[in-house]
Each structure stands twice: as C-alpha cells, then as structure tokens.
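Q: How would the structure tokens look for this protein?
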Amino acid sequence: MPISPLTIAIQAFSALAISLFSAWLTVRLSKNKFRSERLWDRKVSAYERVIEAFHNSKKFSYEHMRAEYSGGEVSEERDKELRQHAKQGMEEIRRTTDIGSFTLSEQAMDIIFEYEHKSNETDHMESWQEYLRHDFEITDEYMQKFINEAKRDLAQ
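A: Here is the predicted structure in token form.
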C-alpha cells in the first residue's frame, strides 16, 4: 500500500517537533546546570575569602602570643604588617557579609555575626596577654565553625 503525502507530512512534522523539543530541553537543562555550577563557584570563592580573612585576623594574635611566650617581641614593622592584615581580614569579613549574603548560607552569616559580636567583647580584658588569648581563641573557634559550615553548604 503506498504511503500518502499526508502521512509523510505528519511523520516529518512529528519528527521535527520531537527533535525541536529535545533540543530545547537539552539547552534548558544545560543552562540550569551552568547556572548552578557558576553559583557553586561563587560560593566557594566567598567561603575562601572569609576563611582567608579569619586566617589573617588570627595571625596577628598568634604571632604576638608566640613572641610573648618566648620572651621576645614582634618588631614594630612586623606589628604594623600584622595589624594591617588583621584590619583587612575584618574588612573582608564585613564586606562579604554585606555583598556575599546572597551566596553564603544563613548559618554561615550567623557564624560571622556571632564572631563579630564575640570578638568585640574585650571590656573585661585586663592585660595584653588576655586580649591576645581571647582574640586567638575566638577567631580560631569561629573559623573552624565557618569551615564546617562551608563544607556542609558546598556538599549540598
């Protein structure tokens, strides 16, 4: 039995419709995957910046404590450098909380806010050593909390 031109047209139209839908779906899924990968990359970058900022902030108290315990002093030049790193670290943490709040998880933001609050609780400090120990312990504790949250958030 011969195939009618109408049957051929319907089959061609069906094949074209299926291929167009498949192509559209493939592009759509690829676009979504690309967006989610870019968002993940931005999240990684934001988490890395904050962790590096914690590290730079912690370095100040660590080096001063190490010098205190060994009976020495940090040179004036190194002290200025450490203070600058610590200041930049705190500025980076604040900047990330302002800008990166759409990338970081709510828990990560809470950790940062709690860290800022705890690190400013220095009114009861009576000595330089006590301040250094407080600063180091708080910064190290919240850096570890932040790292754990980054791992959890990025694993999702």
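The mean pLDDT is 88.

The chain has one domain: 42-155.

Upvote if useful.
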